Amino acid sequence: MKYCVLFPQAKNVHLIKDVGMIAYKLHKLYSCESYVACYNNDKYDYIDGHLKGLKLDFIDKKRNNDIIDGSIYLKKNAKSIDVLQLFHVTIRSVIYAIMYKHYNKKGKIFLKLDCTEELLNKIKNLNFAGKLLFDYFFKKVDLIGVEQKRLFNEIRSLLPRFENKFIYIPNGIDYDLIHLDDLTYESKENYILHVGRLGAEEKNSEMIVDAFIKLYKEDNSIPWTLVLAGDSTPEFNGFIKNYTDQYPGLDEKIMLLGQLSDREELFKMYSKSKIFCLTSHFESFGIVLIEAAAAGNIIVSTDVGIAKELTEQGGSIVSDSDVDDLASKLLSFINDNNSKNLCKHNIDFVKENYDWDKIVMRLYKEITSY
């Protein structure tokens, strides 16, 4: 089976996400000829390293327009592609689907929806012309992957005429690339970890800092450290400096690590930490939550992406931008004697439900049943 992921914007980092991982696992598990079709945007180190066997097919940048260039690519290659993976409900994906099915009527399309509440609301509010185009697109598509269980159930109820096309396909963890077998709660340190683009408005990283400062002001001997990983803006660095200048000794309680681009280094930090905190205003899925939980972190997060599914059996959801709520939830887990059991539960839960191997096995079964 020849499996093509058409994503012109793909860079090296995308390959270890759903853009590359599904195709890679289909190759590894089922010997599919898998490749990502994209512009030559980057140095793709993962191809010759962790993802050996996955191929790239570069799209010619003839018109410098991804819709036109992608369509030209499909005109040339559609007949040789057995399964085409597309992303999102966009005009680009609609045109790609039309082009592919025109040149390969027997080919199959898997649409990775990246489903959000916002998308469901847009579907509900479509005008007449929008509904016609939407229906036309979904009729072209053979399988539609939805990443969250709650949204999977909602969209099937919203679109019953397409309910048999929907499949629950979350994003996952590649356990071949990480080593968590010897991980125990006792090996962890009193770290509260936050990962993201520090200072980016949507990430709202100031919230976790404010909450930690609130705990520090109440007890400056608190034996916990706030660890911040990710590129930071000058404004965010100044924000941190204002606090450390104001509170002597605080600089020993806050660690700014910068960007951890090496996956092994990132997972080492996940493994050391006990609590993972996400404060974003918005996330479509929130893969960092899965990664952190896989390493046994207690999840404390705003209600974004996959957070609710991960915290149903432990962890906590906090109100967006409510610093007092976050500080209170953090303190409850700092003082919780059940943290060891929750650590083990998260490790087991993610391994059972978000292992890329199991996810792709389910997808392969659906693809080959048509």
UniProtKB/TrEMBL annotation:
GO terms for molecular function: glycosyltransferase activity. Keywords: Transferase. The keyword Signal does not apply. Residues 186-345 form the Glycosyl transferase family domain. Pfam families: Glycos_transf_1. This is Glycosyl transferase. The keyword Cell wall biogenesis/degradation does not apply. CDD domains: GT4_PimA-like. One of its GO terms (biological process) is lipopolysaccharide biosynthetic process. It comes from Clostridium manihotivorum.
